[in-house]
Specification:
Strand order of the largest sheet: 1-2-3-4-5-7-6
Number of helices: 3
Number of domains: 1
CATH topology: Aminopeptidase
CATH class: Alpha Beta
Helix content: 10-25%
CATH superfamily: Gcn5-related N-acetyltransferase (GNAT)
Order of helices and strands: EHEEEHEHEE
Distance between the termini: 34 Å
C-alpha cells in the first residue's frame, strides 16, 4: 500500500475531484456539485500521487459541517474513509475557534451513519418526516 497523505485542495487541484470514481452507494446520496460557500474547504486523500478521496467542510466557527465525503470505488472497504475523517477531525480540533463538527446523513445511508458513529459522532434527536439524520461531534 502506498503512503496516504491528506491536504487541502486549492485552485487547479479541485479539477482532480472529477477523477474520483464514486460507487453507486455514494453517488445516490451525494450531490453532484461542490458547495459554493466561500467558507468551504475541501481536503484531499492521496495515495502516492493519486487523489483517492475527499472531504468537504463548510460553515464558520464555532460550528462546521461535513458537506460531503467520498472515496474512489477502487479504494473503498480499505478504511480510507475512516482514516480521512479521523485526520481531518484531528486537524480541525487544533483550531481554537471550532467547537463542534456536524454531518447530515440520509436515513438510508447506513455506511455513512456507521462511519460517523465509529468516529465518535453522536446522533442528535431525529425529526419525524425528515430524510436526514444529524450527527454531532464536540471538538472541545
Amino acid at each position: 500500500m502506498k503512503k496516504l497523505s491528506i491536504r487541502p485542495l486549492h485552485g487547479q487541484e479541485l479539477a482532480l475531484l472529477s477523477q474520483v470514481e464514486l460507487g453507486d452507494s455514494q453517488r445516490n446520496f451525494l450531490p453532484s456539485y461542490l458547495s459554493d460557500m466561500p467558507t468551504s474547504q475541501i481536503w484531499g486523500l492521496w495515495s502516492g500521487e493519486t487523489l483517492v478521496g475527499f472531504l468537504e467542510v463548510v460553515g464558520q466557527p464555532p460550528l462546521l459541517w461535513i458537506a460531503r465525503i467520498g472515496i474512489d470505488q477502487r479504494y473503498q472497504s480499505l478504511g480510507y474513509g475512516g482514516y480521512l475523517l479521523s485526520e481531518v477531525i484531528d486537524r480541525l480540533r487544533r483550531r481554537a475557534r471550532i467547537r463542534e463538527l456536524r454531518a447530515a446523513v440520509h436515513v438510508q445511508n447506513l455506511p455513512a451513519q456507521h462511519l460517523f458513529a465509529k468516529a465518535g459522532f453522536m446522533q442528535l434527536p431525529f425529526i419525524e418526516g425528515e430524510e436526514e439524520l444529524v450527527f454531532a461531534l464536540s471538538l472541545r
